[in-house]
Amino acid sequence: MLVVFVVYSFSLAIYTQASGTSADVHNASIGIVDEDRSALSGRIANAFLEPNFQRPELINADEVDQAMDHSRFMFVIDIPPRFEKDVVKGRPIAVQLNIDATAMGQAGIGAGYIQAIVQYEVNRFVTRSDEDTLMPVELVTRRAFNANGDPVSFASLIAIVNQVTMLTIILTGAALIREREHGTIEHLMVMPLTSLDIALAKVWANGLVILVAVVFAMQFVVRGALDVQITGSLGLFIGGVSVYLFFAATRLMAKISGTVYDQGLMTCHNAKTGEEVYSKRRFSPKGSFTASPWAYNGKIFCLSEQGLTYVVKAGDTFEILNTNSLDELCIATPSIADGKLLVRTLTKIYCVTNGPDTSTTAAERLTEQQVE
140-175 in b/e burial notation, b at 16+ Cβ within 10 A? Predict the structure, then answer.
């Protein structure tokens, strides 16, 4: 099943994402509130043509909010009263454009289209000419690697990078999950290996699968199905993906493998120097941990998910002094307040405090008082 997912991710998913991206406005619905009813406002309304826009629909000002809320229009233009007269007299005037920003890509591009159309029609009306006004400075844009500004070319490569990131997370996580299912992750943790050593062993296989998939996608999906002309270096792109893949997967594996201490391993460091005192000592009997440990009277207490509290000697050697069982699921970290220890289990809350006999500590005796 995972193989099918990898094939889909680097074929149909990339094709769909790249071909479904458009830098043009297509068939956008537009409403016009014409409060001027002049020749100029009519020319502006008639300037919105297919295939960029649907035929404009005239609406009243009090219909705008409801129409936008019900997604009848992507754009609504409000032409104010005396619009044509103010334009003729050269007075400053504003035309309001309402945009449904839920379609972010089309909305942003369409706003630019509408502004250009309105300005063009006003300019034609004022100058009585169809010729464009010559500007003293002309901005010439030249694009490297994508001269025509084809959105498919850009979107296809971004889609590949997105799939590489997603598959790196999935395959790396799947490798660790399989280790846990087979019970071998604990063996790795007690071996004299660093997190980086464990990560490297898993990264190579996963990385090779993803790199093969990237080459396939570039050759048969991007160049073949999407007909994108790649003018840069394919080898350099694959090399960049390899570096990104290596560091992303290694960092992820190191992060994940560094957190498996919740499976029953304890490490001690010198608080002042950071020097390691002892490393990866296993609790017995075995347990998994979600609650954070706490310390009291020269002892460290670790509460497992199985409800077993391990009393560990605080010192240079790992020594379990005692265990106390609550026989119930424990996930929450115990709280300490007013000389009392509050322990939350699946169905109960225990309040642990000093009893009449003070010869041993309360935490070691684990005197239990259920709080109703």
Answer: eeeeeebeeebbbbbbbbebbeebbeebbeebbeeb
Arithmetic mean of pLDDT over the chain: 81
Confirm if 364 and 322 have CB atoms less than 8 A apart. Answer: yes
Residues 222, 163: Cα–Cα separation, whole Å: 14
The CA–CA distances, whole Å, from 91 to 39, 84, 86, 87, 153 equal: 18, 10, 5, 6, 45
pLDDT at 358 over 50: no
Residue 335: its H or E element: strand 335-337
Cα dihedral 33, 35, 38, 44, rounded to 10, equals -30
Which residue in this structure is represented by tokens 């115990």? 334
Q: Is residue 64 a contact partner of residue 79, using CB atoms and an 8 Å limit?
A: no
Structure confidence by residue, pLDDT tens digits, 201-249: 767 777 888 889 999 999 899 888 888 887 778 888 888 888 888 777 7
Calpha distance 265→282 (Å, rounded): 5
Please give the C-alpha separations between residue 323 and each of 239, 287, 355, in angstroms, as whole numbers: 54, 12, 19
Amino acid at 247: F
The rounded Cα 233 to chain-centroid distance in angstroms is 29
Angle at 107 between CA 9 and CA 36, to 5 degrees: 165
Other C-beta atoms closer than 10 Å to the C-beta of 323 total 16
pLDDT of residue 296: 87
Tokens (6 digits) for 114? 């509408």
336 strand-pairing partners: 341
